[in-house]
Amino acid sequence: MLQLQLPDRLIITHTQAAHAEALEALQRLVFPHLAEEERLHADQYRQHLKVFPEGQFVALADGQVVGGTTTMRYRADLSHITPHRFYEIMGGGWLSTHQPDGNWLYGLDVSVHPEYRQRGIARGFYRVRQYLCRELGLAGQLIVGMLNGYQRYSEMMTVEEYYEKVLKGELFDPTVSVQIKIGFSPVALMKDYLHDATCGNAGVLMVLPAEADL
Hints:
Blueprint: E1 4-6, E2 10-14, H1 20-30, H2 42-51, E3 56-61, E4 64-74, H3 86-89, E5 104-112, H4 121-136, E6 140-146, H5 159-168, H6 176-182, E7 185-190, E8 203-209
Parallel strand pairs: 5-6
Antiparallel strand pairs: 1-2, 2-3, 3-4, 4-5, 6-8, 7-8
């Protein structure tokens, strides 16, 4: 079992069925503007544990869920990017799209309770996912980071223009810029990835090779 001890008695460990309701509540808190069908629910979290238990993690503070991440295996050829949407890629939330022989670990989300941010939980999730990639012999992590800072600039520029400025370092995006700093490399802009005006419905497809250290 993969487990990571963080400061302040925070622990990242594998998700258990008993965490499902708390994880659903966390989704509503962390993603208030996300379309309801794109949020994960307790029954879906329990299903994830049947499909790919080794790829599901929670952050606990004194036994209470304060963070979570959902992953699946996915076969991808980065030289031929196929546009897709969040709802479709996660099998409507049920991970029916999980590919047991997939060569990448697709990170579907990272959620951290607002009161526990800036404590290394998100980075801890990426780190434990790296350990899993190496354990399973995968190429690395594949994610779509949300352009969560776009809403502030939506009346001034298109999401494509915002994306280019974030890549050049001219604008700081609270999600994508941090993921780039961690070590993820941008591959492509994914328009209409989900339904969330905060990010202009767009995200950035990014990769982190399994050999990269965090």
